[in-house]
Amino acid sequence: LSVTSVEDPVIMSKIRQNLREKHARHIADLRAYYDSEIQSLKQQLEASHKNTSSEDLKKINQNLADRDFCNLFLLNRCDQLDAALNEASARIKALENKNNMLEKQVADWRERFYAVSNTSKVLQERIEEMRTNNKEKDNTISRLKSRLKDLEEAFEKAYKLSDNKNTRLKEENKMFQNLLGEYESLGKEHERVKDTLNATENKLLDANMQISDLKR
Fold first, then answer.
1. Are 37 and 72 in contact (CB under 8 A)?
2. How far apart are CA 210 and CA 205, in angstroms?
3. Does the pLDDT of residue 3 top 60, yes or no?
4. Burial degree of 11 (CB within 10 A; 0-12, 13-18, 19+)
5. Residue 49 belongs to some domain of the structure
6. Is residue 50 included in any domain, yes or no?
7. Which residues form a coiled coil (predicted)?
8. Does some domain include residue 33?
9. CA proximity to 25, closest of 76, 69, 85, 80
């Protein structure tokens, strides 16, 4: 048998069933054979009883006694083999039940492993998405910083050029304040995104640890 066939529980169960059946047939054949032998000897004894001397009868009786002893021994041996077969069958049944239970446990652990793997994959995708969004917001903040710097320079330049441009300066100051408020809002949102990203990474780490435990 190949290694794959030996490891297949269905094939092994069929092999054990065939062995049990062959053993049972063998024991039944032995019993039938020796029962037939005993019956034949008894018939021969009855047929030759009238024409046999007492000395011959003693020899025949001794031979019958020897054969009866052998038959009794063989019958006892058959009973022992029968008991051993029953014990082996019970042991095989217990092992098959244990094997079925282990197979169910393996299937359950496999399903749990797949579930945790899928969760880890989803978390990884979410982290990558949040990183992309965070990168985009970082770029937006960088652009706003550059624009704010330009406005500051323009504000200082306009302030130095003329004191008669108060109205324009107020408008630019208002624009500057609005831009500063937008920058602060984006900064707060950026911090929240970072916190969320850290929490998701922690969840992914826990999932990876659970996957490692399940693999072990």
1. no
2. 9
3. no
4. middle
5. no
6. no
7. 78-210
8. no
9. 85
Residue pair 180/151 in contact (Cβ under 8 Å)? The answer is: no
Identify the CA nearest to 46 among candidates 71, 25, 27, 64.
64
Selection from 27, 43, 210, 42 nearest residue 113 by Cα: 210
Within 10 Å of residue 214's Cβ, how many Cβ atoms?
Answer: 15
Tokens 């300066």 found at: 169
Q: Say how far apart CA 141 and CA 93 lie, in whole Å.
A: 71
Structure tokens that stand for 213 in this block:
């435990």
pTM for the complete prediction? 0.38
**Residues near 78 by Cβ (< 8 Å), separated by ≥ 6?**
27, 30, 31
Structurally, the chain folds into a number of domains equal to 1
Query: Which is more confidently placed, 165 or 194?
Result: 194
